[in-house]
Amino acid sequence: MAAALLLLPAMGQAREIGEVDTVFKWLGPNHKIVVEAFDDPKVSGVTCYLSRAKTGGIKGGLGLAEDRAEASIACRQVGPIRFDETLKDGETVFRERTSLVFKTMQVVRFFDRERNTLVYLVYSDRVIEGSPQNAVTAIPILPWAEPAR
Question: To 10 degrees, the CA torsion angle through 40, 16, 95, 124?
């Protein structure tokens, strides 16, 4: 089972936007908060921005540390919204390991049909016990005006 968790593919590729140090470490990288961006793989015109803690020090530098469960998310319409495939409520759109084996940070998508709104939830889970800490963001699906020429 542990080997299978190591092979989990990232659902989407995040691009780091920036980072800030939060704790200086004499050995290894500092503890930090990173901001990453990723596009929803099934919804064109949506980009999500995720901020999360990354553990530094020797363990963090070697990839052996467990990152904290806290994260923040903001998703925005960045173009005309189009569904490239059929959407499933609760579908994982992004996943990243936050410890060597057992812990992941995930972003899942829901579609609130009544309000014509996409809802994204970020949370951290563990094989045995997850965390209730989470963050949510919503995007109302609106017409996209092309820029004037």
Answer: -120
